[in-house]
Design the sequence.
């Protein structure tokens, strides 16, 4: 049996993540979604329980997919699950630059674990968790971008949205 892990913060899970997960599940015998318990590079908007719950609800019925939390190195999480593969989704060129660096570090720590990249489907290649959060905060409709449980939670958090327009981080 070939086990793959798909690590991330999933803050929140998007339809882009679900696309990659379902496609990976059609390739590998088991896919373990690794939710980062305590991200070091950003503060999550959603609690760990919410992030895990969103994933479990969105993936209900996917028999060879499991969700687990990890607080160790990705390669140690992979070893814990006896995974031979780390799955990473790619949307745009900038994703590749970051993932390439991570791959080299992971390969140094665990040369026995391979990284497999799954290109996002064109219909979701533009979807990012940060973009979805900003759209929702301004009252935009994210129903087409995230699983229903996530969209419902955004409607609870931002019933009226914020006034104004989103900021351009490049200005």
Sequence:
């Amino acid at each position: 049996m070939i086990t793959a892990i798909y690590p991330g913060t999933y803050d929140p899970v998007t339809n882009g993540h679900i696309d990659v997960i379902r496609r990976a599940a059609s390739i590998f015998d088991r896919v373990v979604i690794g939710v980062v318990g305590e991200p070091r590079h950003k503060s999550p908007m959603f609690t760990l329980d919410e992030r895990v719950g969103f994933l479990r609800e969105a993936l209900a019925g996917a028999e060879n997919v499991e969700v687990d939390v990890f607080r160790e190195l990705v390669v140690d999480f992979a070893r814990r699950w006896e995974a031979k593969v780390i799955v990473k989704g790619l949307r745009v060129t900038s994703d590749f630059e970051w993932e390439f660096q991570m791959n080299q570090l992971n390969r140094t720590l665990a040369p026995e674990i391979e990284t497999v990249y799954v290109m996002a489907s064109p219909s979701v290649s533009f979807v990012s968790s940060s973009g979805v959060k900003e759209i929702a905060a301004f009252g935009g409709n994210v129903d087409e971008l995230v699983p229903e449980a996530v969209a419902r939670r955004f409607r609870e958090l931002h019933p009226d949205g914020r006034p104004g327009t989103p900021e351009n981080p490049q200005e």
Q: What stands out?
A: The mean pLDDT is 92. Residues 93-109 form the longest helix (17 residues). The two ends are 50 Å apart (CA to CA). Strands lie at 3-8, 30-36, 65-70, 85-90, 114-119.
